Every structure is written in structure tokens, then in C-alpha cells.
Amino acid sequence: MKNILTVTLLLFTMLGAAYAQEEKSAAELKNEGNAAFKAKDYKTALASFEAAIDAWDEAEDMDGAMIYLAANSARKLKDNEKTLKYYAQSKELGYKEDAATYYIGTTHKTMGNMDEMEKTMLAGIEEFPNSKYVAYMNKALSTHYVKQANEFFTKGINILNTRVEGNADQWDAIKGKAKVELDQAGALADKALEYNAKNSTATTIKTKIVELLKS
């Protein structure tokens, strides 16, 4: 009998705690999320923010700052889908649109969606020309373009390396094929320098292309 009473009390306690959790207001849940985020407990923060969103009064405007912190929490947790979702909502609410755009771009990069990354960064630069995040967007684009430039440069080098003593008479044709790849590399290196004039790799690629095509 004693054991039955103990189990019953435990069940009532658990149900009471669950009920209390359900009864928390959106504001209370948001505050819990803020505290957890400050403590770098991003898992708890995201859960609290999402609970606050679910409990939010539809008659009230959504809190953009909370949505932005939900996005930050998701990014820290490497939850890419929720990161994109909440940064997009932050933009829609007009809260830290420039930062949200940048992090949408970096999340696409993390996911390997390089076309989306490029599109997002280019749009961000145009949309927020005076933002401090433009420098980060420029750097991201420059890195993207120089990586592509290096791929074409490597292809060109590999073609040039097919020249051997036995096919010396085919050198012009080999050089012509290599030039197609090297021209692509040069154009992409130019784009990299357009967004970051200090990109030393892009500068080196352009210098090497000139040397190779002269030889």
C-alpha cells in the first residue's frame, strides 16, 4: 500500500510539473531562453524560444530579437534547417536584416549550397551597402571565387603537363586547350580581387597565368 501511495504521489508531482510548464507565458519562456543563451546553453535556449513562439499571442507582433536569438541558437547547434528558418523570419520582421542575411549565406556554405551562398551574399551587398557585414560578405565571395579560380588553374596546369618530348609538335594545341582553362581561372581571380583586393592567392594565380602563357 505504501508503495502504491509513493508511486501515486510521484505521478501527481510529475503531472503538476508538466502542467506548470504548459502554463508558462510566452514572456516567461522567452526570458528563460535569454538566460540560457547568455549561459551558452543553446539547446535549452532554442527549446525555450520555440516554446515561446508556440505560446505567442497571435494578436501581438512577434519579437524579432527573440527570433534572431533562436536563429543564433540553432546556428550554434549546427541545426542548419532551423538556422535558415529563423534568420529568414528575423529578416521578415526587420530585425538585424544585414546580419541575418550574412548568416543565411554562411549556412548555405556550410550545407554545400554554394550557388545559394553566392546569391545571398551578392544580394546582401546590394541591399545593405553601409553594413559592417558587407566586409564579411565580400571576403566570403572572394574566397569562393578564388577557390573556383584555383580549380580551373589546376586543370590548365594538368593540360600543360601533358607535353612530353614525343609530342612537342602538338605543343600549340596543348597550350590552346590549357589557355581555355587558364582564362577561366584568370576571370575568376579578377572577381575574387574585386571583392577583396588583398586576396594574395588570386594575385598569385594571375601572375602565374601570365608566366605560363608566355612560355
Question: What structural category do the secondary elements indicate?
Answer: mainly alpha
CATH topology of the largest domain: Serine Threonine Protein Phosphatase 5, Tetratricopeptide repeat
Q: For the terminal residues, how far apart are their CA atoms?
A: 96 Å
The level 1 CATH classification of the largest domain is Mainly Alpha
CATH superfamily of the largest domain: Tetratricopeptide repeat domain
Strand content: under 5%
Overall pLDDT confidence: 90
Main sheet record? none
Number of contiguous helices: 10
Number of strands: 0
Poorly predicted regions are 4-9, 17-21
How helical, in percent, are the residues?
A: over 70%
- The count of domains is 2
| Pattern of helices and strands | HHHHHHHHHH
Rg is 27 Å
Shape: elongated
Give structural notes.
- This protein is mainly α and 215 residues long.
- It folds into two domains: 24-116, Serine Threonine Protein Phosphatase 5, Tetratricopeptide repeat, CATH 1.25.40.10; 139-214, no CATH class.
- 79% of the residues lie in helices and 0% in strands.
- The chain contains ten helices and no strands.
- It has helices spanning 2-22, 26-38, 42-55, 64-76, 80-92, 97-110, 114-127, 133-160, 171-195, 200-214.
- Helix 5 runs antiparallel to helix 6 (97-110), helix 6 (97-110) runs antiparallel to helix 7 and helix 8 (133-160) packs parallel to helix 10 (200-214).
